């Protein structure tokens, strides 16, 4: 018999895996469109002519979408427990902390994409490719990361969804705590400044 999910039901296996997918795609896309829309409308000029630094601008853009991502997380948890009857066996506080770090990674990825593209259509497609493909193919949702080789294994080990997927499944199904999952928290914590620094380097404060 299986130790976790002994009845081999699909919902307890898939619901904790779908939450990371949605928390990566939606906040990243909203963040990317938030900045690119200003480029298309021309309101980005306000940023160019004010003394606001690039870091302040990016943080100001990121924080509202982090809050929206956490609201989305709460709704997903409610749907999981109430609608799909998949209980959270572990600490909800640990899962929430992991979700906060993960959403910050997702919005950081959205900021990076927004700094690279100048049109909303390109930002939508770029975000969809940068979130859906790695989150589905290389995060361990379908195939374990440990079974991957070459570039797939590297992407799987570096991509934030791989770490939060283990946190989500560990808290939902295995009742694991922070001491059991702390390596994945550290990985998410290390990813946040990397994405923000890349966004900072890609966003140029031009003068018009």
Description of the structure:
The structure is a single chain. Helices cover 76% and strands 0% of the residues. The protein has helices at residues 10-41, 45-49, 54-83, 92-116, 120-137, 150-158, 160-174, 178-202. Helix 4 packs parallel to helix 8. It is elongated and about 65 Å long.
Percent strand:
under 5%
Distance between the termini: 67 Å
What is the overall number of helices?
8
Q: What percent of the residues sit in helical stretches (DSSP H or I)?
A: over 70%
**H-E string:** HHHHHHHH
Low-confidence stretches: none
Mean pLDDT: 85
> Structural class, from secondary structure content?
mainly alpha
Task: Report the biggest beta sheet as strand number plus sense, adding barrel if it closes.
Answer: none
Overall outline? elongated
- How many E-type strands? 0
Mind telling me the C-alpha Rg?
A: 18 Å
């Amino acid at each position: 018999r299986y130790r976790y999910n002994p009845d081999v039901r699909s919902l307890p296996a898939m619901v904790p895996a779908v939450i990371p997918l949605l928390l990566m795609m939606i906040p990243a896309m909203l963040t990317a469109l938030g900045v690119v829309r200003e480029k298309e409308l021309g309101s980005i000029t306000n940023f160019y002519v004010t003394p606001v630094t690039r870091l302040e601008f990016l943080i100001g853009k990121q924080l509202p979408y982090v809050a929206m991502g956490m609201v989305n997380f709460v709704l997903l948890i409610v749907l999981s427990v109430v609608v799909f009857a998949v209980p959270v066996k572990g600490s909800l506080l640990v899962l929430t902390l992991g979700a906060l770090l993960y959403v910050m990674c997702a919005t950081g990825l959205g900021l990076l994409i927004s700094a690279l593209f100048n049109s909303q259509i390109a930002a939508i497609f770029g975000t969809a490719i940068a979130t859906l493909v790695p989150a589905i193919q290389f995060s361990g949702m379908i195939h374990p990361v440990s079974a991957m080789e070459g570039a797939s294994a590297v992407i799987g080990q570096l991509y934030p969804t791989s770490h939060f997927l283990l946190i989500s499944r560990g808290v939902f199904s295995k009742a694991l705590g922070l001491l059991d999952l702390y390596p994945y928290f550290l990985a998410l914590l290390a990813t946040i400044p990397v994405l923000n620094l890349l966004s900072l380097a890609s966003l140029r404060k031009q003068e018009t």
